[in-house]
Amino acid sequence: MIRILTALTAAALMAAAVDAEDVAVRAYFSTRSLELSFSTDAVGAAPIREYQLFYTTDGGRSWNEHPERRSTPDAFPFVAPSDGEFGFTIVAIDAAGLRTPPPQPGTAPSYVCIVDTVAPEVRVARPTPTEAVYGGSDLVVEWAASDADLGDRPVSIEWRRNSNDPWEEMTGQGPYPAEGRVQWFSPLASGSLEIRVSARDRAGNVGHWVTPEPVRVVSFDGFRGSRALAADPYSCFRRFPLHYRITGFDPHEVAEVQIWFRRELGPWQRINDPDATTPYIFEAPDEGQYFFYLRAISKNRHADRPAPGPDTPADQRVVVDTLPPDGELLAGVGEGTPVHTAGEELPIQWLVHDENLDADAAKLEVSVDGGRHWRLLAKDLRSTDGQGSFLWRPPLIGSESTRFRLVVSDLARNRSVIDARSPVRLLNPRVDPKETAREHYHHAMVIARTQEPGSTGDRQQLARALEHLEISLLYDPNFAEAWHDRGVILRILGRHPEALESFAKGHRLRPAEVPFTFDLVRAHLDMVDQKLDPDGEHLANATAILASVSRESIYAYPPGEYRDLLITQRILAEDIADRRVAE
User: Nearest 5°: phi and psi at 539?
Assistant: First the structure.
């Protein structure tokens, strides 16, 4: 009798024992690296000499022998090639040659491992990203989790008041099914809260959904005194709840609840709440200010107050604003990519447009690595008439692309992320810019030299080399070799107009360098070959450059590639010019 004892993962150890003739034991694992330990009873009178592991990937229809054998009952290592179901059986051979029968097509495995490394996906329909809950009312959570290996009740729901607080179970009724909806009475009278919905599969993988923004808890200030109707004074949705209470009649006496509304100073319009139960979900036809008035009718057709007239004060005002703020953000001084010395104050200014701007709801974020990682620079920034400014003293670091963004909200909780018009290049005053330029140039050359001569090269590698050259030229705009080699890479990438411009800048800095002259001429002739020279300007430029290089200076250059190519170019340019004249 053979028993598979354990399947061991890097994170967990699961023990199981099963007779070969029993139903297979099934276990779930969140890693593809498994170890299978086993024990056996004797096959015959002789001691066991060898153990074989067989595995199946199709439920026993076919079997494969593990490449390793064991002389002692140690663990067999097994690496699953992918997620899925894998079955196992052990065969023992004793010193007399007796063996347990190996599995045949159709033999059921003794032990089944389900490998699942993918976390469940959690989708939440409510609360919505900008939903609010009223103090003293229910919050609805509606979710759906999906995964190939979910259990019966895989979902948990938790909440917390602040981002630093520990998570608490929300209702005390979990765990929940994969799909569901619960209502929860918020214990908060005001403030905000976060919600997390988690789903765990049988392998132990966990997927989370967390509210992207805290859920706001709105207090019922509107019910103070004689006011009988309350709502959030600003809504970023056209559809929102109106909470009310009837004070003129007992609940059993109410036959009809009328909600009157007007947009801006328009006429009053009446809506009847069909179930006469708070809240009523109002749907605004458009943006703007809406005024509301509550009126109840009893079963004997008495009203608790008269219908509203043109001058009747409203019970509640709600501003419907579904448009996020827009604007612009400027960092540094200067056009293009502003250059700023680290350690000195950097001015940052913004102008935001929104009719309902929250004056203290802006925060500024910075990234010193071109936008890959962001950190908070300042929050609760004030904007006066939409305008604001901030002075930042950067640390003593160098950065080729320091980016800024402003996260701003209006009173209706619409939010925008406004990126700065251009990045800022930070110079570290303790670092020599030319030395930094040389370092990046060296990196570019190391990458570029890995390409096969004459080939189009690995475009991704060449793009990396080009990035280093761009940075090098930011630090030293007069670096002739960097301009020239930038042109070489651009030419390989087929970006001929940019290559020509780069070669021209290198040639202006080093007009006596024959290789620079050669590549500039070749770039002009490329424009001719690519049919980008309808007026003959590039051919004329190539001819003029070659004419400016005397034959004596060409032949004075050491014999070799550049001298021969310059002579060939000169002949080629003259030949093209002659053919154009003939045409």
Answer: -65, -40
517-550 pLDDT, tens digit each: 888 888 888 888 888 888 888 888 877 877 776 5
Tell me, yes or no, whether 335 lies in a domain: yes
pLDDT in tens, 498-524: 999 999 999 999 887 877 888 888 888
Q: Is residue 434 part of a domain?
A: no
Contact 29, 43 (CB under 8 A): no
Containing 556, the helix (H) or strand (E) segment is helix 551-556
Q: Alpha carbon 415 to chain centroid distance?
A: 17
Pair 208, 242 in one domain? no
- Model confidence at 436: pLDDT above 90: no
Same domain, 234 and 294: yes
Cα separation, 198 vs 251, in Å, equals 40
Residues of the chain with pLDDT > 90, as a percent, come to 29
Q: Which residue has the tokens 């096969």?
A: 452
- Cα atoms in the 13 Å half-sphere on the side-chain side of 204: 12
The residue to which tokens 């943006």 are assigned: 287
Token pair 């604001």 is found at 388
Please compute the mean of the pLDDT values over residues 139-147 and round it to a whole number: 90
Please choose, from the candidates 477, 506, 476, 474, the residue with its C-alpha nearest in 3D space to the C-alpha of residue 489. 506
Q: Is the pTM of this model over 0.85?
A: no
What domain range is 337 assigned to? 326-427
Long-range contacts made by residues 12-18, C-beta under 8 angstroms, separation at least 24?
12/204, 16/111, 18/110, 18/111
Cis ω for the linkage preceding 279 (within 30 of 0)? yes
- Same domain assignment for residues 460 and 526: yes
Residue 346 · residue 420 · CB < 8 Å = no
* Domain contains 145: yes
CATH of the domain at 537: 1.25.40.10
50 in a structural domain: yes
Based on the structure, what is the number of domains in the chain? 5
| Domain match, 174 and 198 both | yes
Query: Read out DSSP for 427-468?
Result: E-TTS-HHHHHHHHHHHHHHHHTTSPTTS---HHHHHHHHHH
DSSP per-residue letters across 327-358: EEEEESSSSSS-EEETTS-EEEEEEEE-TTEE
What is the CATH classification number for the domain harbouring 111?
2.60.40.10
Asked if 233 and 257 sit in the same domain, the reply is yes
* Gap between the Cα atoms of 330 and 423, Å rounded: 9
Query: Last residue of a domain, which of 84, 115, 146?
Result: 115
